[in-house]
Amino acid sequence: MIRSRFVPRPALVILLLLLDVVLLDAGSLSAAVALAATAAAGSALAVCTLVAARSAPAVPPTRVRTAIRDRARRTAFLPQRDPDASGRPRPRAPGQALRTTAA
Question: What is the pTM of this model?
Answer without folding.
Answer: 0.38
